[in-house]
Design brief:
The complex is a heterodimer. By secondary structure, chain A is of the alpha/beta class. Chain A has helices spanning 15-34, 55-63, 81-97, 113-118, 121-128, 149-159, 170-181, 184-187, 191-206; strands at 3-4, 6-9, 40-41, 45-46, 71-75, 104-107. In chain A, the strands form 2 sheets. Chain A has a 4-stranded parallel β-sheet, with helices on both faces. In chain A, strands 1-3 form a two-stranded parallel ribbon. In chain A, helix 3 links the parallel strand 5 and strand 6. Chain B has 2 domains: 1-219 and 334-448, no CATH class; 224-326, no CATH class. Helices cover 30% and strands 24% of the residues of chain B. Chain B has helices at residues 34-49, 52-58, 133-137, 142-145, 173-187, 195-212, 221-224, 243-254, 263-275, 311-323, 340-353, 383-387, 435-442, and strands at residues 2-8, 16-19, 23-28, 78-86, 97-107, 115-125, 156-159, 215-217, 228-229, 280-286, 291-298, 301-305, 327-331, 373-378, 393-403, 406-415. In chain B, the strands form 3 sheets. Chain B has a 6-stranded antiparallel β-sheet. Chain B has a 6-stranded mixed β-sheet with strand order 8-13-14-3-15-16, sandwiched between helices. In chain B, strands 9, 10, 11 and 12 form a 4-stranded antiparallel β-sheet that branches. Classes of the chains: A alpha/beta, B alpha+beta. The A-B interface holds A 17, 25, 126-131, 160-164, 167-170, 172-174, 176-177, 180-181 and B 257-261, 264-266, 268-270, 272-274, 276, 279-280, 298-299, 345, 348-349, 351-353, 362, 364-365. The complex binds adenosine-5'-triphosphate and magnesium ion. Magnesium ion (MG) binds at residues 34-35, 378 of chain B. Chain A: This is DUF4276 family protein. Chain A: InterPro entries: DUF4276. Chain B: Residues 1-47 form the Endonuclease GajA/Old nuclease/RecF-like AAA domain.
C-alpha cells in the first residue's frame, strides 16, 4: 500500500480544529522517518456524526465509509481514567469482534487535546503573534500535569494577545494555527502523544508497510 | 457607527428608510437595490468628505443618471439623504447621537454648467425620544451610564453651503462648511455665548471623521495581487488595490512592543482558520524596488508571492483586514469564490468582530472603549439565513408605486419575521418577510400543479 487514508472519530467539535491537521502532519513525519514505501498521506477525515461514547453509531458511520479508509483513529480524552478506560475498552472489544479488518488506533491525551496544544511554546508565540510568552507556563512533558489546559489557552489569548476567546472563531482559528505550527518533535516528548506514535507505527506495520 | 439611513430620489429609492445594526446583511433578488444602497452610502460619505465630483465618480452612473427615473420616463430633480450615527468621540461633553441631512438638486443655471447643487445640509442632535435605535435594536444600559450614548434634543448645527469662491467639486461638503464656520468665527470677537461656535466646529469635525472612516469593497482578484509602492496610498481602494500597504498601516497603527503586529496578528490567525492552505504571510518591504509585497507561506511552501496565492485566500485576507479596522465597511458579495463552509465561518467571525451594543461597551486595558466596528454585506448566499440572526438581515425587492398616472418600480426593504414573531410590526411600512418567501432565496421553488 502506498497511500494512507485515516478517518477520525473524535470527542467534540473543537477536536476537529486541531487533531485532523496535526495528526496528518505527525503521520507525514512518521512516514518520512520510518516507512519510505508509503508515498502519500491523505487528509484525515473526521466522522462528525459518529459520536464517540457508544460503539454502535461509530460502526454505523464507518459502515458508510467502507473501503475509503485504512486506519481508524479513535480519540477519547483520558481523564478521569475510571470513566474513560471502560469506554475505550468497550470500543476496542466491539471493533475487534466486528467485520471490519482495518486497525483502530486510540488517540488518548492524558486529560484533553488542549494539553497537546500547550506543549510547543515557540509555536504558541507565533500563533499569538507575540514576542515571547510569559514565564512560568507549563511546557513539554509537563503539560499532562496541567489541571485545566483549556483555561490556560484562553488565558493566553486574553492576556498575551488581547483577544477575546468568547468571540466566535477566536479559539477555533487559534487551535487551527497551532495544529499547523506545533512541532511534532516537541509533542513526542509528551508521553500520551508518544504512546499514539508507537501504536500508529504498530498499526502501519500490521498493514504491511515496510520499514526503511 | 451608522444607525439609520434614509434615501429619497437617488436611483431606485423613494422614501426609503432602514435602521442599520452593527452587522447587516442585505439579501434579495437581482436588481432589487442592494448595490444601489451601498452606492447611496458611498455617494453620501464621499460628498461630505471629498466633494460632489468625487461622489459621482465613486458610484455607478453619471450625475443626472443618479436621480430616480419615474415610470413615465422623467427624472426627479431632488435627492434627499439622511444618516444617523453614534459618534465615537465627542469631546467637551457634546451629545453623541447625531443625524446628518443633505438635500441635493439638479440645476441648469444660465451662467454655469449644469450639475448637482447643494440645497442645504445640517447636523441635528437626536433627542432620546427621537432615537429609535435602543428600542429597535437593543442597547445595554452601560452605554448610557458611561456617557457613550447621549442626547441633546433640539440642537441643530446648520451648515453653510460653503464659500462660493471655492469650486464645489474640490472639497468635501463638511469640510467646506467648516471653512465657512471658521470664517465667521474669526470675523468677530468671541464672547462666552460663542462657545457653541467652537462646539459646532467640533461636531462637524467628528461627523466628518465618522463618514471618512466608511469603506466600500467590491474586490477584484487582479487588484488584490498588485504590490504597493512605498509612500503610496495607505488604504486599499474599492477593488482591494494596495492591500499590502493597508496591512502595513494597520500594523503601525495597532502594534506594540510586545505585540509588534497588533491586529495584523489576529488577521493572520483567522486567515489560517479560513484559508487553511496558507498559514502565514509576511509583508515584505523592498527598499531597492521601493515596493511592498505580500508573501504567503505554509508548513509545505515558503515565499508564495501574491501572484501565486489563490483568489479566495487574497479575498479572505482583504475582508479580514477591513473587518479589523475601525469604522464601517460595506462589502459586496463577500462569498464570491469562497468555499461555503469558510463563508459560514466568516459570517460568524464578523458577528463577533463588530461592536455589539446589546452588550456593555468593550474596553482596552486602560479602560478606553475599543474603536467601533461595523459591517454591511450584500449576499446571495443561502448560508446567510442559517448563520446570521434574522434581526441582522434586510430583504430588498421591488415594489410598484403609482405617480403622475404611471407605474414606477422602486426598492423596498423589509426585515425578516422572527421565529414565531409578528408579521406586522408597528412603525414598519411593510409586513415582514415570511418563510415562504425565503424559500425562494434558499433554492428557488417551482409552483407544483
Ligand atoms: N436612477 C435610477 N432610477 C430608477 N432605477 C434605477 C436608477 N438607477 C438604477 N436603477 C435600477 O436599480 C437596479 C439595479 O439595482 P442594484 O444594482 O442595486 O441591484 P442589486 O440588488 O445589487 O442586484 P445584484 O444582486 O444583481 O447585484 C436596476 O434595475 C436599475 O434599473
Ligand atoms: Mg449588486
Amino acid at each position: 500500500m502506498r497511500s494512507l487514508s485515516c478517518v477520525l472519530v473524535r470527542e467534540g467539535p473543537s477536536d476537529d480544529w486541531f487533531l485532523p491537521i496535526f495528526l496528518r502532519r505527525a503521520l507525514e513525519a512518521m512516514v518520512l522517518e520510518s516507512f519510505p514505501a508509503c508515498r502519500e498521506i491523505q487528509e484525515i477525515r473526521s466522522m462528525v456524526k459518529a459520536g464517540n461514547q457508544h460503539p454502535e453509531p461509530v460502526l454505523k458511520a464507518l459502515d458508510g465509509e467502507r473501503g475509503a479508509f485504512d486506519v481508524v483513529l479513535y480519540h477519547h480524552d483520558g481523564a478521569p481514567p475510571t470513566k474513560s478506560d471502560p469506554v475505550i475498552a468497550r470500543m476496542r472489544r466491539t471493533w475487534d469482534n466486528s467485520a471490519f479488518t482495518e486497525p483502530l488506533v486510540t488517540v488518548v491525551p492524558m486529560r484533553e487535546t488542549e494539553a497537546w496544544i500547550l506543549a510547543d511554546h515557540e509555536a504558541l508565540a507565533r500563533a499569538l503573534s507575540v514576542r515571547r510568552l510569559r514565564n512560568g507556563l507549563v511546557s513539554g512533558a509537563a503539560v499532562e500535569g496541567c489541571p485545566d489546559p483549556k483555561a490556560v489557552l484562553e488565558g493566553l489569548l486574553k492576556g498575551e494577545a488581547g483577544m477575546n476567546p468568547a468571540k466566535p472563531g477566536v479559539v477555533r482559528d487559534f487551535y487551527i494555527s497551532m495544529a499547523e505550527f506545533a512541532d511534532v518533535g516537541v509533542l513526542r516528548k509528551v508521553p500520551a502523544f508518544q504512546q499514539w506514535w508507537n501504536d500508529m507505527i504498530k498499526a502501519l506495520e500490521g498493514l504491511g508497510y515496510q520499514h526503511g | 457607527m451608522i444607525t439609520r439611513i434614509e434615501i429619497d430620489g437617488f436611483k431606485s429609492f423613494e422614501n426609503f428608510a432602514l435602521d442599520v445594526p452593527p452587522f447587516l446583511v442585505l439579501i434579495g433578488t437581482n436588481a432589487s437595490g442592494k448595490s444601489n444602497l451601498l452606492d447611496a452610502l458611498s455617494f453620501l460619505s464621499k460628498a461630505a468628505v471629498q466633494g460632489l465630483d468625487s461622489a459621482v465618480a465613486a458610484v455607478r452612473g453619471d450625475a443626472r443618471g443618479l436621480f430616480r427615473r419615474r415610470g413615465e420616463g422623467t427624472r426627479v430633480d431632488r435627492m434627499r439623504f439622511a444618516v444617523e450615527f453614534l459618534l465615537e468621540s465627542a469631546p467637551l461633553g457634546l451629545p453623541t447621537r447625531w443625524r446628518y441631512e443633505l438635500d441635493l438638486a439638479w440645476a441648469e443655471p444660465e451662467d454655469a454648467l449644469e450639475g448637482i447643487v447643494v440645497e442645504g445640509h445640517q447636523l441635528v442632535a437626536l433627542s432620546s425620544a427621537q432615537d429609535r435605535w435602543p428600542a429597535v435594536r437593543g442597547m445595554a444600559p452601560e452605554w448610557f451610564a458611561d456617557g457613550l450614548v447621549s442626547y441633546q434634543g433640539g440642537r441643530v448645527v446648520s451648515l453653510p453651503i460653503g464659500p462660493l469662491e471655492v469650486p464645489s467639486g474640490g472639497m468635501g461638503l463638511l469640510h467646506m462648511a467648516r471653512v465657512a464656520l471658521n470664517d465667521r468665527k474669526y470675523l468677530r470677537d468671541l464672547t462666552d455665548d460663542d462657545i457653541h461656535v467652537l462646539e459646532d466646529d467640533t461636531v462637524v469635525r467628528v461627523a466628518w471623521t465618522e463618514l471618512a472612516q466608511m469603506r466600500f469593497l467590491h474586490l477584484e482578484a487582479g487588484a488584490l495581487r498588485l504590490s504597493s509602492e512605498l509612500g503610496g496610498p495607505q488604504f486599499m481602494d474599492t477593488t482591494g488595490r494596495d492591500l499590502p500597504n493597508y496591512l502595513r498601516s494597520l500594523t503601525k497603527a495597532t502594534g506594540s512592543k510586545e505585540r509588534p503586529l497588533g491586529v495584523v496578528g489576529e488577521i493572520k490567525m483567522h486567515l489560517a482558520g479560513l484559508a487553511r492552505e496558507v498559514t502565514d504571510f509576511a509583508i515584505v518591504e523592498d527598499g531597492h524596488r521601493r515596493d511592498v509585497r505580500l508573501e504567503f507561506s505554509s508548513p509545505y511552501e515558503q515565499e508564495i508571492g501574491a501572484e501565486f496565492a489563490s483568489d479566495g485566500t487574497l479575498r479572505m485576507l482583504a475582508i479580514l483586514a477591513a473587518l479589523h479596522d475601525r469604522g464601517c465597511v460595506a462589502i459586496e458579495e463577500p462569498e464570491n469564490g469562497v468555499f461555503p463552509e469558510r463563508f459560514r465561518h466568516l459570517l460568524a467571525l464578523t458577528g463577533g468582530l463588530v461592536t455589539d451594543m446589546r452588550q456593555p461597551p468593550e474596553r482596552d486595558a486602560l479602560r478606553v472603549p475599543l474603536p467601533y466596528r461595523q459591517a454591511i454585506f450584500t449576499s446571495h448566499s443561502p448560508i446567510v439565513l442559517d448563520e446570521v440572526p434574522s434581526a441582522n438581515i434586510a430583504f430588498l425587492d421591488m415594489t410598484t408605486v403609482l405617480e403622475n398616472g404611471a407605474a414606477s418600480r422602486v426598492s423596498r426593504v423589509r426585515r425578516l419575521r422572527e421565529d414565531q414573531g409578528p408579521v406586522r410590526v408597528e412603525g414598519e411600512r411593510w409586513a415582514r418577510v415570511t418563510e415562504s418567501e425565503l424559500s425562494r432565496f434558499r433554492a428557488g421553488v417551482e409552483a407544483s400543479a
